[in-house]
Design a protein that fits this description.
Number of helices: 15
Distance between the termini: 61 Å
Number of strands: 12
Shape: globular
Structural class: alpha/beta
Number of domains: 2
Radius of gyration: 20 Å
Strand order of the largest sheet: 4-3-2-1-5-6-7
Strand content: 15-25%
Helix content: 40-55%
Order of helices and strands: EHEHEHEHEHEHEHEHHHEEEHEHHHH
Largest sheet: 7 strands, parallel
Length: about 375
């Protein structure tokens, strides 16, 4: 029997982290968790996870004393760089399930010491794609269901044979709603097919998520933006497709459940039996596909423009979106203002955006400027 995979999980108390640990629990002979990191909001769950899986090192952004009192002899790393320190522990795979651009530092920390990364933190590539890709594409296995699907579909042919890739989007809760002027937070969080964290769910409602994923696909698969498209697929069963030059299209399909992509990534692109339930072919299946209404969901085209122009624009796009989503969730702005604020921030800062991103400090400076401008715009629209 082969040795278990040494696994580090960042964002262990979030949706991706919790599901990853459920996979570990179901396959105790295949994985050994040697490090966990999470924020300070759910210290009790972090302590419970560390005890359950006998994790030797745990990182958090706060409440160190409380965590130590719960864990005893377990090593606890505290502070803003805790996730990066945990990510740099020598292991087989680091699962980065952190939400937001704060996940970029840990991604770079893991790659810099030679660890492979199962990447669920799309912002790492959106904000710092050039920095991440400098370590090589073979060191990253995507966790997002769309990019996991593309990763698998690419195995069907050579890169030179690819005509285009097609990301699928559920369309969120408003795909059939024409008037988006009176959207409540509860409306936007009521996703029809996926159960996700608040930020990702709001991004799905605006289709900002699909814009971020287009930029992510550009970096992961070294594709020009002209070869990356997206379509609405309400059932969320076909996760993405690759069209080849001979007219063949290869699709990856499974029920809308993240355990399949997570299991595939943390195992090093090896299929784990029964990672997720398969499609039930004893029942009638009806799968729909439709083009995205770009007038209704302008975030996709905005993301594509930022990606094509490159430099610091994707980081501006991402950081201003994080500010706008938070403002919507706290009731400071309307749903319709989210993309409006991102667009206005990009226009205001885009002309001064650096052409080349050289370091994590560059990304931080760009994002800080974007957050300042986006927060000003939030105040104006309150």
């Amino acid at each position: 029997m082969s040795a278990p995979i040494d696994l580090v999980i960042l964002g262990s108390t979030g949706s991706i982290g919790v599901q990853a640990l459920e996979i570990v629990e179901a396959n105790p002979d295949k994985f050994r968790v040697i490090g966990l990191a999470a924020g300070s909001k759910n210290i009790e769950l972090l302590a419970e996870q560390a005890k359950k899986f006998s994790v030797p090192v745990v990182g958090t952004t706060g409440n160190r004393d409380l965590l130590i009192s719960m864990l005893g002899n377990t090593q606890v790393i505290d502070g803003p760089t805790a996730a990066s320190e945990i990510a740099a522990i020598a292991c087989d795979i680091v699962l980065n399930g952190i939400t937001g651009s704060i996940g970029l530092g840990p991604t770079l920390a893991a790659l810099s010491v030679g660890n492979k990364v199962a990447l669920a933190n799309k912002e790492s590539l959106v904000a710092g794609g050039d920095l991440v890709m400098a370590f090589g594409r073979d060191r990253i296995i995507p966790v997002d269901s769309e990019h996991s699907a593309l990763y698998q579909c690419f195995l069907s042919g050579k890169a030179s044979e690819v005509k285009q890739v097609i990301l699928t989007a559920s369309g969120g809760p408003f795909r059939d709603r024409s008037d988006l002027s009176e959207i409540t937070v509860a409306d936007a969080l009521n996703h029809p097919t996926w159960s996700m964290g608040q930020v990702v769910t709001i991004n799905s409602a605006t289709l900002m998520n699909k814009g971020l994923e287009i930029i992510e696909a550009h970096y992961l698969f070294d594709l020009p933006y002209s070869k990356i498209s997206a379509v609405i697929h309400p059932q969320s069963i076909v996760h993405s497709m690759v069209e080849f030059v001979d007219g063949s299209t290869i699709a990856q399909a499974s029920p809308p459940n993240m355990k399949g992509p997570i299991a595939y990534a943390i195992s090093g692109a090896i299929r784990i039996p029964k990672a997720t339930l398969p499609i039930d072919w004893s029942k009638n299946q009806s799968w729909e596909f439709a083009p995205i209404d770009n007038a209704k969901f302008p975030a996709v085209d905005l993301a594509r423009r930022c990606g094509e122009l490159g430099g610091g624009l994707p980081a501006i796009f991402n950081a201003s979106n994080e500010v706008a989503v938070d403002a919507f969730l706290t009731g400071a702005i309307s749903f319709a203002h989210i993309v409006d604020i991102v667009d206005a921030t990009v226009q205001k800062l885009g002309g001064n955006s650096p052409v080349t991103i050289r370091s994590l400090a560059d990304v931080s400076a760009i994002e800080n400027d974007a957050r300042v401008v986006a927060n000003q715009l939030v105040q104006e629209r309150k």
